[in-house]
């Protein structure tokens, strides 16, 4: 493949740089900030946040990005060489160099090949004569000569990727995003299918690759995605939630849980909530005394007659509410909601929490008349 300059080379490069600049602050993989190349008449610039570095030796007339991405600059080439994140790759052949399609981690675009070698994140990994490089999820690759995470070489023996959370293990080690986790037993290590960011061996619980020494591994269990408990405590991620009885705690959903004495939302206790009668509705929660939106008790609502109507609307015996806010003047007895979310009572039509029309000019007070096709009939 021969590289030839075109009359549009600089314009195309500048256009790519402009579009990439719009996402330059994005964190695409959780591992590093986004980067991009900027082609200028006098050279090529690698941009990483506020840092601008000239790509040494790059020819702007022939320079092109090989795997355009909104996340990273990645691989590029001109007639003289190949570059990764602005650094020339020694010995890489620009005529045969090709990035590999990584369906598991397309935002990384780590792996590539030329006629002689396999590459990972700009580093030569293995000879093509030695066998095929197989990309594993997420971001790992394996070859007869080794296992890899980008440019990092890992232990090859018994190597396997575990789930989609970034974990892998070999005969002797456990890895998280290519970094070895010290002190974790590879043979007994497992990940949690309900949340692959969690893992454990016979003695430790691991979260996002970090050993959680405060958690008792033998009794730990996940209640939901990021909430778990051991025999001593409840944990929100790695953080202990005080005041919760782990023996009786029950996950209710939508951020709520309760034990036999209290009700909690997120990491905090809902003061005054009754755990025995507390239950979830579609948009609210309720106990025998109060109605709640998230952790807030809604003032002035009669819990004994409260019912949800749909689309955020609810009523008690005297008032109508939209996500806990009273609709002033709305008639509770006649209020109903259409399938498209519009509400109406005997006098008015409503959209969200706003009165928008009236059924008669007498009721209207300047509002337009309601269209029965849009708001239903009285």
Number of strands: 43
Inertia-based shape: flat
Measured by DSSP, the beta-strand proportion falls in 35-45%
| Main beta sheet | 4 strands, antiparallel
Tally of alpha and pi helices: 3
- Whole-number mean pLDDT: 88
Give the CA-CA distance, first to last residue. 74 Å
* Cα-based radius of gyration, to the nearest Å: 30 Å
If you had to describe this structure to a student in words, what would you say it looks like?
The chain is flat, with a radius of gyration of 30 Å. Helix content is 6%, strand content 37%. The chain starts with 8 loop residues before the first helix and ends with a helix. A hairpin with a 3-residue loop joins β12 and β13. The chain is mainly beta and 378 residues long. The longest helix is centred in the first third of the chain and has 13 residues. The strands form 11 sheets. A 4-stranded antiparallel sheet has the order 4-5-6-7, with no helix packed on it. The protein has a 4-stranded antiparallel sheet with strand order 8-9-10-11, with no helix packed on it. A 4-stranded antiparallel sheet has the order 12-13-14-15, with no helix packed on it.
Could you provide a short overview of the structure?
By secondary structure, this protein is mostly beta strands.
Which descriptors apply to this entry?
disordered N terminus, mainly beta, four-stranded antiparallel beta sheet, flat, 6% helix, 43 strands, 37% strand, 3 helices, 378 residues
């Amino acid at each position: 493949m021969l590289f030839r300059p075109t009359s549009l080379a600089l314009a195309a490069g500048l256009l790519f740089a402009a579009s990439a600049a719009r996402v330059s602050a994005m964190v695409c993989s959780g591992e590093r900030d986004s980067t991009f190349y900027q082609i200028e008449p006098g050279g090529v610039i690698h941009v990483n946040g506020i840092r601008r570095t000239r790509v040494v030796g790059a020819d702007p007339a022939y320079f092109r990005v090989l795997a355009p991405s909104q996340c990273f600059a990645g691989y590029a080439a001109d007639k003289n060489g190949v570059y990764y994140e602005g650094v020339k790759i020694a010995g890489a052949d620009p005529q045969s160099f090709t990035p590999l399609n990584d369906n598991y981690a397309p935002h990384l675009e780590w792996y590539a090949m030329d006629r002689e070698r396999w590459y990972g994140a700009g580093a030569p990994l293995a000879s093509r004569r030695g066998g095929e490089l197989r990309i594993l999820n997420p971001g790992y690759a394996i070859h007869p000569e080794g296992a890899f995470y980008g440019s990092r070489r890992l232990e090859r023996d018994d190597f396997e990727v575990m789930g989609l959370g970034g974990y892998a293990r070999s005969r002797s080690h456990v890895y998280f995003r290519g970094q070895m986790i010290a002190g974790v037993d590879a043979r007994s290590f497992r990940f949690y299918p309900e949340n692959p960011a969690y893992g454990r061996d016979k003695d430790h619980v691991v979260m996002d690759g970090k050993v959680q020494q405060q958690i008792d591994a033998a009794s730990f269990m996940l209640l939901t995605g990021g909430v778990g408990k051991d025999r001593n405590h409840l944990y929100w991620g790695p953080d202990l939630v005080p005041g919760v009885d782990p023996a009786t705690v029950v996950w209710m959903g939508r951020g709520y849980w309760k034990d036999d004495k209290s009700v909690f939302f997120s990491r905090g206790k809902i003061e005054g909530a009754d755990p025995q009668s507390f239950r979830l509705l579609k948009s609210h929660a309720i106990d025998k005394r109060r109605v709640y939106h998230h952790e807030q008790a809604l003032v002035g609502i009669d819990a004994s007659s409260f019912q949800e109507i749909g689309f955020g609307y609810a009523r008690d015996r005297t008032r109508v509410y939209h996500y806990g806010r009273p609709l002033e003047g709305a008639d509770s007895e006649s209020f109903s909601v259409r399938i498209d979310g519009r509400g109406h009572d005997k006098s008015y039509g409503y959209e969200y929490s706003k009165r928008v029309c009236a059924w008669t000019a007498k009721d209207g007070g300047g509002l337009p008349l309601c269209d029965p096709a849009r708001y239903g009939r009285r």
